[in-house]
Amino acid sequence: MSWHKSDSSAVAGAILRSADRNDFSKSRALRPKAHELIPGGAHTYAKGDDQFPANAPGFIARGKGCHVWDLDGNEFIEYGMGLRAVTLGHAFEPVVEAAYRQMKLGINFSRPAKLEVDLAESMLELIDGADMVKFAKNGSDVTTAAVKLARAYTGRDLVAICGDQPFFSIDDWFIGSTEMNAGIPQAIFEMTLKFRYNDLASLRELFDQHSGKIACVVMEAEAIALPAAGYLNQVKQLCEERGAVLIFDEMITGFRWHLGGAQKFHGVIPHLSTFGKALGNGFAISALAGKRDIMRLGGLGHDQARVFLLSTTHGAETHALAAALETIRLYCEQNVIEFLWRQGERLRTLVNQSIAENRLEGFFELLGRPCNLVFATLDQDRNRSQAFRTLFMQELIRRGVIAPSFVVSFSHNDADIDRTAETVYEAHVIYRKALDEGIGKYLDGRPVKPVNREYN
Ligand SMILES: Cc1ncc(COP(=O)(O)O)c(C=O)c1O
User: Fold this and answer.
1) Could you tell me the sign of the dihedral formed by the alpha carbons of 218, 195, 220, 385, in that order?
2) Spatial distance between the Cα atoms of 372 and 336, rounded to a whole number of angstroms
């Protein structure tokens, strides 16, 4: 059976064309209350008002497949769903059923559930080179746990992170290194050092400057830039020569690049790796996987100092484990990854045609792998432009597409992709005019802003 031929998507084109997306009254009424009650009006900065154009729907009421409906009943095709966590689709029946079945059996007991072992086994079959795994709720928690484990294992304090990659954790060791570091003591962020991606010399320099003090190297094997030939292997070799732990953050790449993660895709096995997002199709579940000699420090039955590793009240809620087991099963059974790459490629081809037809080469660019497409927007002087990003998103939203990225899911069928491409074409027509005549005439509200900035 092929799950991606979902009921909602089959009629997508017709519904979207006839939808009346003029009424946002309920969303508009709720917005001030949200900001009064919740700092930022939302629980994730990336979902905040400052990340979307003024005409973006304020609140989502429900989703099905790759479609969402806002509070006023307006329908949209959505991309990058749930910050890339919802890889199969919203309310994806088999996953919801698996979680629900488990919820009726209880979600949290005084002793572990068998599901913890089942999911560990299922996951470790896919992640080459990992001998043990520990589950948690958030990506940040497992990446921070990997850093703590590396520090304990090496007896060192410093952490080297890839400075060209945007995010690893909400915790102080990482956020301290960003623009938005209020509230974090300098002593904490002085322990985090940055190297450049694809620049082995910059990492070697850190190891030389801080000889014997770097506990670990934290990086995504690949984000938007592709690794130069041999680079990842050289990073691993350097880590091993200098006695540091190599940690791959697979939050985005995991279950997207390859079933075995970007590490399998590139054939470079780190000592520890962290997963989240796609692991549970949006259910809160993340994982720290790695070599036994490091991971075991968080366990029983050794005589070294004990590492407090990911022990939380909700860490192994059974319904999230059941959702992850079912998600992994579907990934294997349905060739989900192949589908993500194929649909991304279909979209890329169509968007590139639109770029050419609207003479937008060098002004609008699609970047990244087909399974993880993002776009860059540049102004008339070919400088990166948040205003043009806002304009593009504004025109998509006006036509029924919410796209902070073009990251596809298993629910984006051909009709959704083709409808999106038509919408992109129309948005590109406006983009071209804005380049020629000035953006002021076309942009309705204030531009979006980067999340990590010092001041509002
Ligand atoms: C690469 C990467 N690592 C870690 C995280 C943190 O994951 P979480 O938001 O689940 O804490 C994110 C979140 O966006 C991410 O993109």
Assistant:
1) positive
2) 14
Query: Which ligand 1 atom sits nearest the alpha carbon of residue 137?
Result: 10
Instruction: Read off the pLDDT of residues 187-205 as tens digits, 9 standing for 90 and up.
Output: 999 999 999 999 999 999 9
Give 121-170 pLDDT, tens digit per residue: 999 999 998 999 999 999 999 999 999 999 999 999 999 999 999 999 99
- Other Cβ atoms within 10 Å of 293 Cβ, number: 12
Tell how far the Cα of 141 is from the centroid of ligand 1, in angstroms: 9
In whole angstroms, give the CA distance from residue 408 to residue 401.
12
CA distances from 456 to 142, 387, 449, 452, 453 (A): 29, 16, 9, 10, 7
Q: How many CA atoms lie within 13 A of 421 on its CB side?
A: 21
Amino acid at position 233, single letter: N
Percent of the chain clearing pLDDT 90 (strictly above): 90
Centroid of ligand 1 to alpha carbon of 83 (angstroms): 9
Token reading at 111: 């002793």
**Nearest-CA neighbor of 65 among 75, 77, 56, 82?**
77
Q: Dump pLDDT digits (tens) for 306-331.
A: 999 999 999 999 999 999 999 999 99
Ligand 1 pocket, residues with Cβ under 6 angstroms: 83, 138-140, 143, 167-170, 220, 249, 251-252, 276, 286
* Selected residue with higher pLDDT from 48 and 360: 360
Q: Ligand 1, residues 51, 144, 167, 222: which to mutate, most atoms within 8 A of Cβ?
A: 167
For ligand 1, mutation pick of 81, 251, 275 (most atoms within 8 Å of CB): 251
Number of Cβ within 10 Å of residue 69's Cβ equals: 17
Enumerate residues 6+ apart whose C-beta is below 8 A from 7. 64, 65
The Cα–Cα gap between 281 and 341 comes to 17
Tell me which of 231 and 17 has the higher pLDDT. Answer: 231
pLDDT tens-digit profile of 221-237? 999 999 999 999 999 99
